[in-house]
Amino acid sequence: MNLFLLLSLILFNELSANEINLFTTRHYDSDTIIFKEFTDQTGININIVSGKSKPLEKRILEEGKSCKGDLFFLADAGRLVSAEEKGLFKKIRSKVLEKKIPKQFRSEFWYGIAKRARIIYYNPKLISLKEIENISYEDLADERFKEAIAIRQSNNVYNQSLVASIIENHGKKYTIDWLKKFVQNFSREPAGNDRSQILSVASGESKLAIANTYYYALMASGKKGEEQQEATKKVKPYFPNQQNRGTHMNISGIGVLKHSPNPELATQFIEFLLAPKVQKHIINNTFEYPMIESVKPSILVETMGKNFKQDNSTNVSSYGKWQKDAFKIMKEAGWN
Ligand SMILES: [Fe+2]
Predict the structure, then answer these.
(1) pTM (2 d.p.)
(2) What is the pLDDT of residue 28?
(3) 217: CA distance to ligand 1 center in Å?
(4) Ligand 1 centre and the CA of 116: distance in Å?
(5) Distances, alpha carbon 272 to alpha carbons 38, 48, 62, 203, in Å
(6) Interval between CA 306 and ligand 1 midpoint (Å)
(7) Yes or no: is domain 117-248+310-332 CATH 3.40.50.300?
(8) pLDDT per residue over 123-149, tens digit each?
(9) CATH assignment of 3-115+250-303?
(10) pLDDT reading at 6 higher than 60
């Protein structure tokens, strides 16, 4: 071997020991600031591969042992469990992560970084607060809400996770019966994204909608244009299940990939994401809820509802466990 080749091999090893490859489904420009901060602090470079969850999952699986990815960042526990079940992740242990992240928001394979609530929205011109006071997701199947509710399609993972949480808490038989009635209460054929459900309530087409909290905050921030910002003024958020287990919570989370060349650095990066300063940066840009208690949600999110009871008893892994069953019974109930 000539000297030049030897040197460049050493140099390459040196370089690859000081970088991590992150596969992510997130599309926040603000994340690049976090990555830069990590590099400044540690000297470790981060290479980003971004895309949608399914194609990224496929790529990681196909590349197998030769996949150079270290980390996979996904939204929704349902997707994290699905990646876990396909054997994409490596088990890691970290005392820092175990201490900082409540048990119900992590597994041995992935860790919740931020939380989101899937809540109810209402148009006070069409339905009074009194009419929905103290309601639970379960009550949305009541006849009094006939043709009132806007919600997106059953193929959406957020909805599958919500239904999975009902299976986890009440069993499949209850959920099948519940779904039959719930679907009767749809105001329109499910279509569009979460923001479009909120817009349907604003326009008066629907009395109620179900959507994740960060979409409302995003619209209210003005980042989606003046029209959507105005729409949020006609719509009020409502946090259900306050009398029982609490409002349905989900996570965005991350895991170390099975064939990660640098699992220690990858773990270090996850720990970095849980630092107060980083958590603050994340939630101020994504409008999610922080995973650690010492950080407060962004002001826009706080004005939606302070100190509401979060469902801290249902383990988010159960959303993955029941995902396929949930989808099946949703379809069978006529939820398109
Ligand atoms: Fe989303």
Answers:
(1) 0.93
(2) 81
(3) 12
(4) 9
(5) 7, 17, 29, 42
(6) 21
(7) no
(8) 999 999 999 999 999 999 999 999 999
(9) 3.40.190.10
(10) no
